[in-house]
Amino acid sequence: MPAWLNELLPIVLLLGLIVVVVGRLPRADLGHSPAFLRRRFMNWFPVGLTYAFLYMGRYNLNACIGPVFDKAQFSDIYFWGTLTYGFSFVLNGPITDRIGGKKTIILSAVGALLANVAIGLIIARAMHGGTSVPKAEQAALVPTLSFFYAVNMYFQSFGAVSIVKVNSAWFHLRERGTFGGIFGILISLGLYFAYDWSKFILERTTAPWVFYVPAVILGFFAVMDLLFVKDTPGEAGHTDFDLGDASSGQTGERMKLIEVLKMMLRSPAILTIAAIEFFSGYLRNSILQYYRTFAEETGRAATAAAKKAAAAATASGLTPPELPTEFVHDHWGMLNCMAGISGGVLAGLISDRVFGSRRGPVAGVLYGVMVAGALLMFGTINTRAIGWVVVIMSLAIIGVHGMLSGTASMDFGGKRNVGVVVGVIDGFVYLGTAVEALVLGRVLPKGELAKDSHAWWTWPAVMLPAALIGLALTTRVWNARPAAGKPAAH
């Protein structure tokens, strides 16, 4: 089988699995017609894949640790991008509520497309025709890449706001736990694209193509969104219906930004969810961004450069060096994708079917898994078992993110104000990520010390306190529910 087909086959199987899983998810009986369900699928599927490929155009930066910058320089670039993302809700939430999720998901895709092309061109120029940026020039590249990555992340920040804004009009309160599972699936697909596809591209071409490829794909899905996505069922020829959330019974003008912010400040549930998601962002990216670097620097897995050198030796008729392999490292994106799908769907089903559409209990259980995982990391850091520990932790934290950013934001913000609410909540995710980038970039071992796995004890050490605080916060929203009106069938 050709190598490219071997890489493409898993995603085809994954997409088939997703269609089957989503089709078999139990649904609340709200009287939706088969025609409505089909049209709803045609609405969330393209916008959802746009969101997944936005992830590819966001986390592809990680693939360039080594050929373009070291992990400390990566952390600095990533910090400015995530800080920009975190504060973008001040503009992007109100914009999305005003002009609708369809326009802003297209804006997000086009803006991220242009930023990725710019980053690719900058890196290509810095390589001087080679396969990597000279070590002496890497530090000088950091400010420029920080600026353009911040631009990328500004447009990226429309993504979560847009998808939740669109789907808030299509999913009733009692269905949103299931949608939280779908949201987790989309995040998981994005991780697969970002990590495994970016690695595949880097091993066969050069670093600029890690940015060019998602740019092309985002252009395609911007067109698909333009053709198929509608902001409300009414715009698609169906009947709008009472959603049973915080917007039920509201008519008249949309609340102004200051009024929405005052409403949020008076809502302990929303404030607590935002705080929990701060720690979710911190923990999620502590895992996702550094496991592959950990495996490569401790000698458990081969780098992309080593694989290229081995391939070149083979092509020249020489005996290639024996390269270390590790299953978790080599399939990091795929494993996180599968873990995220499992965690997202499981969390959604438990929320709707066991806890009566309450999101707090599920988040609490999953944060308990994070605490246990951080403790296990200390004991497994010198063994291959640590890879599976962090995969399970990834399952848990993606489940939390789907429940809170993808679902609770709709519940408590309502269809009318969800742009601002999800913008604030998702903004806190990336403020937590910005703090993580600062902390991890400074506490992780460097140079020769990084080759000793025992020296990486600082990694779980800075995750455990965040997991404990997050767990404590989930108990404060254990029974939280939005004030809802009566559901309406159609």
Overview in brief:
This protein has helices at 3-24, 34-59, 71-87, 89-99, 101-127, 135-156, 158-168, 176-204, 209-228, 257-265, 268-288, 291-297, 304-315, 327-330, 332-353, 360-380, 385-443, 458-474.
What is the mean predicted local confidence, pLDDT?
82
Beta strand % = under 5%
CATH classification, class level:
Mainly Alpha
Structural class: mainly alpha
Poorly predicted sequence stretches spanning 5 or more consecutive residues:
248-252, 484-490
Please describe the biggest sheet, giving its number of strands, its sense, and whether it closes into a barrel.
Answer: none
Number of strands: 0
Query: In angstroms, what separates the terminal alpha carbons?
Result: 50 Å
Sketch the topology as an H/E string, one letter per element.
HHHHHHHHHHHHHHHHHH
* CATH architectural grouping: Up-down Bundle
User: Into which percent range does the helicity of residues fall?
Assistant: over 70%
Please name the CATH topology.
Growth Hormone, Chain: A
Shape: globular
The count of helical stretches stands at 18
Radius of gyration: 22 Å
Provide the CATH superfamily. Answer: MFS general substrate transporter like domains
What number of domains? 1
Question: Could you walk me through the main structural features you see in this protein, from its secondary elements to its overall organization?
Answer:
There is one protein chain. Helix 1 runs antiparallel to helix 8 and helix 7 (158-168) crosses helix 17 (385-443). This protein has 490 residues and is an all-alpha fold. Mean pLDDT is 82; it is low at 248-252 and 484-490. It is 73% helix and 0% strand. It has a single domain (42-233, 257-477), classed as MFS general substrate transporter like domains (Growth Hormone, Chain: A). It is built from 18 helices and no strands.
